[in-house]
Amino acid sequence: MILSNQEKIESYRENITEALRILDEIIEIIRFQDNPEDTIIDQKLEEIKKILNQ
């Protein structure tokens, strides 16, 4: 079965939404641990979120 462009776009949106949800969970875990060395990881994950939200 070949997906139409609209179906592909919707699939990409769903995947991005799921990826953002997972990133949010990871960020919460990192912030909860409150390790100073995790600050860079937290910043990089936030950068990824910004890219995916565009």
From TrEMBL:
Instruction: Output the superkingdom of the source species.
Output: Archaea
Q: What is this protein called?
A: Uncharacterized protein
Organism, as annotated:
Marine Group I thaumarchaeote
Q: Specify the taxonomic lineage.
A: Archaea, Nitrososphaerota, Marine Group I
